[in-house]
Amino acid sequence: MEKLKVLHVDIGSCEGCNVSILRALPKIQEFVDLDMKYLAKKTCARDKYDMVIITGGVCMNEPHIIEKVKSLREKTSTIVAFGSCATFGGILRFCRGGQEPRPDHRNFQPINSVVKVDYSIPGCPPTPQMVQSFFKFFVAGDKKRLKLFKVYADIKKLSGFDLIDDIVLTGLCIGCGACELSCPTQAIEMIDRRPNLIAEKCIRCGTCYVRCPRASQMLSMGGRK
Amino acid sequence: MIGLASDNLLGTVFGVYLARAKDEEIRRRKVASGGAVTALLTYALEKGIVDGVVAAKRTKGLEGQAVVAHNKKELLEAAGNKWSIVPFATRMKAKIEEENLKKVALVCLPCQAQFFAQMRDFPLLESDFGERIKYIVSLFCMGTFAFNAFLNYLRMKYNIKAEQIRDIHLKKDFLEIVYNGTKLDLPIEEVYSYLQTGCLVCTDYTGIWSDISAGFVESEPGWTVLMARNPKAEELIKSAEKEGYLELKEGSHVVGEILKKAREKLARAQQNMSYLL
């Protein structure tokens, strides 16, 4: 079987996502031919790729980044936003300008604000095993399993705040505790059998929302965020 | 594989069986149906296929708690219907790490099955423990009670206190509440409004993300329906039969009945979504 030609481009992440992809590399090498700047390969060497993985959020104050993302869209039929910054804005959402080291950066957006994204994989960072799973299901063409990631590709913002608004305050929460377990920063604690968000701790990675059975069931049934 | 498309209401189904425990002790203690889940998991534990079973155990009233069972005795203690959701995600993680379990079987509801299966398929976090989950058994579910509200209702209207309730059974279209040596039959319609709101918009009856779905149908009393959703689950059920833990018979004739229930749940969900969302 021919290997999947994949390009990885980082447009400003903390490197956590990149390390995660690197760690997964030994396990995906047999079916993925990855172009990545850490691999001492000339990236963007091909005209066309089967898949482009983008990590990091788009700084709206950097026109050349926006152009770069748009040019990547031309290179492939499948763009994968990897990590919470690329999918939902993540912690970069807190950028407000005047902050060191780049006071000129005032606003970051997820990739799907600029171009159409095909799959979004949230997580801060998603684990290497997640990279493996994703490629496994992608190569196998398992659309059913990948459906949720397709749905997230159209969502620009997802966080603990959305979880509280959409699921808890609407009364749909069943109190299973999935969100509490999923939060990487322990921003959620169960109080009276319902999650409570400690606002300062939420890094807007969206993992809780993605893991909420109620939320993910409704999204995969065609519900809209 | 019987003729069901993978995107239908019941999810992927490899095989449907009617099963019951061969063990007399399990059969005697059975609560919902044939005790097949208890027997199946006893088999898995005794043969070392799993090293622990995490399940919910009703402690007092309608409240429950997550427990790890290591043998038949502990399994039997946890067996039976649950009427409230047990928030065992976090608790379970602690349990698994505490005892350093490597191969766990989980007995849970469709929503929890979805969460754990998603974690297993898509480990987003370094702290995920999906690789330790070997089997996910989901029980058929029509919803869980907002039990504080429900208990309050029972107390106000029927003067039944939480600690008096011995057991609750779902009969055809009423709930049988066993308390203080007597029984009370409550029509289902009467108690519907005490289900959790989130359950009223849930569309999953069988637990389409699980490895094995288990439940009962009215036309086959005394038998548990087991739905295997992948070859791994199928193998477990078959070998449990071979080893003499389970009595098995073909069950594809009850699929229609399960589907009817699933449609009922879907219709209810659609109706409720229209005014809740």
Commentary on this structure:
The complex is a heterodimer of chains A (225) and B (277). In chain A, helix 1 packs across helix 4 (128-140). In chain A, a hairpin with a 2-residue loop joins strand 8 (188-191) and strand 9. Chain A is built from nine helices and nine strands. Chain A has helices at 16-28, 63-75, 84-88, 128-140, 143-152, 160-168, 178-182, 207-211, 213-220; strands at 4-10, 32-35, 51-55, 58-59, 79-82, 108-109, 119-121, 188-191, 194-197. Chain A is α/β, with parallel strands linked by helices. In chain B, the strands form two sheets. Chain B has an eight-stranded mixed beta sheet, with helices on both faces. In chain B, strands 6-7-8 form a three-stranded antiparallel beta sheet. Chain B has a domain at 15-141 and 203-262: Aspartate Aminotransferase, domain 2, CATH 3.40.640. Chain B has helices at residues 24-29, 36-46, 72-78, 88-99, 110-121, 147-158, 188-192, 197-200, 231-242, 255-276, and strands spanning 15-21, 52-58, 64-69, 104-108, 133-139, 165-170, 174-179, 182-187, 212-215, 224-228, 246-250. The relative contact order of chain B is 0.20. The model of chain B is unreliable at 1-6 (pLDDT under 50). The radius of gyration of chain B is 18 Å and the shape is globular. Classes of the chains: A alpha/beta (225), B alpha/beta (277).
Index terms:
heterodimer, A: 225 residues, alpha/beta, Rossmann fold, Alpha-Beta Plaits, 2 domains, 5-stranded parallel β-sheet, two-stranded antiparallel ribbon, 9 strands, 36% helix, B: 277 residues, Aspartate Aminotransferase, domain 2, 3-stranded antiparallel β-sheet, 11 strands, 23% strand, disordered N terminus, oxidoreductase (chain A)
